[in-house]
């Protein structure tokens, strides 16, 4: 039974703050504090190294992978947690290229998050086999898929505009052309219903500190379609992805199934916190969550547009064509966002002029959305952004 009042009560949101940045860093679930304490004081402290067996630390990457798998339509045993998303992107692209040795092009789009493009580019350069990374406009992706493409690597939700790619259609086209399909679900997992099984994607990756609320630096996840995993040769062949890590063989043999996508020692305390955070999804229907997310974002767009003419909607107007965020362009967007944050409404800013607002039905309410819209319109109507303190760029925007 989906109950958003109950799910909001699970989070510790600071008094007086309207948090519209869960698309960058999810807020802290109250249970995270106790779970971190338990892991440190009741497990690490008394158990020392025996915690890997006694407290089940070694199995957490697979267990958490399965919990996330349920949110993205991936069968049990096909998703594992570890490392950062950038690393998981690298792993997926490297494995995809080995599956298509005669092809030399990776296709992506310029709406992708730069780290995905940087990681692919770095990999292709170090392979030294003449691969190239082809980056086209998001609207041109479908037409650019042909039989020269080894792998299509896309992020479903554009981090700036929230524009949503059609996973099913693009995956079908990639497969028809014989290419491997890699989806980055960084802004999708926990934000919208996804059915990886139905769309038949080969690889999917994502992070857990955005809509999954796993906390700053929480590990990423990777999914490989079950019928493919036995052919996948991990490029990052670390000991914990080995078939028998404690045999300490000198030669690498990939582990069974998805366990081969593990690399090294996983972050136990951070995984425990993520485990606690995922409880928030236990009684939530992702369809109900999506419906509420659309209600929140539709209200924000209509109230901002009614109250201030100086901003321009960057996100698709059709709610079915965007993820769970809304972006507006404003020339002084950085200063306006700083002014908003000073008033307790937290969104973020992406250069050169985009103000981003993420909506998470687990804890955001319609009242908060109206409050945020009213504050934004007031700041713009009164030039409330026009103060030196709001114009100084911080390291993280
Ligand atoms: C947030 C995000 C990342 C960040 O990668 P990290 O390695 O976790 O820092 C990468 N790709 C996409 C698409 C993202 O949205």
Unreliable stretches (pLDDT < 50, length at least 5) are none
End-to-end CA span: 37 Å
**Under the CATH scheme, which class of the largest domain?**
Alpha Beta
Q: Can you give the helix content as a percent range?
A: 25-40%
By DSSP, the count of extended strands is 13
Ligand roster: pyridoxal-5'-phosphate
Mean pLDDT: 97
Topology:
Blueprint: H1 4-9, E1 18-19, H2 30-47, H3 51-54, H4 60-71, E2 79-81, H5 85-99, E3 105-109, H6 114-127, E4 132-136, H7 141-144, E5 149-155, H8 167-176, E6 180-184, H9 196-199, E7 203-206, E8 221-224, H10 268-278, H11 286-307, E9 312-313, E10 325-329, H12 333-342, E11 345-346, E12 348-350, E13 354-358, H13 366-381, H14 388-391
Parallel strand pairs: 1-11, 3-4, 3-5, 5-6, 6-7
Antiparallel strand pairs: 2-8, 7-8, 9-10, 10-13, 12-13
Helix pairs in contact: 2-10, 4-10, 5-6, 11-13, 12-13
Bound molecules: pyridoxal-5'-phosphate.
Residues 84-86, 113, 115-116, 155, 159, 184, 186-187, 207, 220 line the site of pyridoxal-5'-phosphate.
Subunit structure: Homodimer.
Pfam family, one: KYNU_C
Modified residues (N6-(pyridoxal phosphate)lysine): 210
